[in-house]
Amino acid sequence: MTQIFFHEGDLPASVDLPKIIAVDTETMGLELHRDRLCLLQIGDGRGNCHIVRLKKGEYDAPNLKALLTDASVLKIFQYARFDIAALYLYLGVLCRPVYCTKIASKIARTNAPSHSLKALCQQLLSVELEKEQQCSDWGADQLSQEQLKYAANDVLYLHDLKARLDELLVREDRMAYAQACFDFLPYAGMLDVAGFNCETLFTH
User: How sure is the predictor about 135, in pLDDT bands with cuts at 50, 70 and 90?
Assistant: First the structure.
C-alpha cells in the first residue's frame, strides 16, 4: 500500500532511505529561469513517497542537498535532464549519480513510439497512470489529495521501470551507451542552466 509523507522545506534527517531512490520535481512550468521549483518527490522503492514542498525563495534544504549529492546513492529520474537542471538552479547542487528511464527507453526500445512515463508504465508494467494534474498549480498554498497522488505516482514506479529497462539494455548490448548518457546528464543540466542547448552543441 502506498504511503505519502508530506514535508515542508526539507527532508527530515530521520528518514531512512535505500541506496537507490527515485526522484522527481514539480515546477510552475517548463522554463527553468521563469518557473520556480515547488516540490521534490522521493520514492524509496518500497511503496513510500516523501514529498517536500519548497516555498518561493526558500531553498535552504541541507538534508535534501546532502542526499542529492551523495555519491553512494543512485537517483532514478524519468526525464533527468530537466530535473537535474532545476535542482542545480534552485538548490545549487549537482545531482549524481543518476539514471534516466526516458534515456534508457530510447536506447533499449528503439521500436517504441513513445518514451513518456505514462507509456512506459503501460507497456512495461501494465499500469495506467492518471495525468490530469500534470499542469495544475504546484505553487498553491494548499495542495489537493489528487495533486499529491499524482506527484507520488511520478516516482513510485521508477524502480520497477529501471529493472525492466536494464534487462532490455543488457539483452540488446546497449548498457554502455546508456551509462555514458547518464554520466553526462549532470553536465547537460549545467549547460541548460547556463543557456546553452545540447542539441545545438552536438550538431554540425
Answer: confident
Classified as helix, coil or strand, 100 is strand
Separation between Cα atoms, residue 42 and residue 74, nearest integer Å? 12
Pairing of strands 20-27, 74-77: parallel
- 72 near 133, Cβ under 8 Å? no
The SS3 of residue 105 is helix
- How many helices and strands, by DSSP H and E, does the chain display? 8, 6
- Encode pLDDT of 57-93 as tens digits: 999 999 999 999 999 999 999 999 999 999 999 999 9
pTM beyond 0.90:
yes
For 121-150, letters b (16+ CB in 10 Å) and e give bebbeeeebeeebeeeebbeeebeeebbeb
What stretch of H or E contains 41? Answer: strand 37-43
Strand ranges across the sheet with 37-43? 3-8, 48-53, 37-43, 20-27, 74-77, 98-100
Q: Say which CATH class 3-201 falls into.
A: alpha beta
What dihedral angle (degrees, nearest 10) is formed by the CA atoms of 138, 4, 88, 21? -150
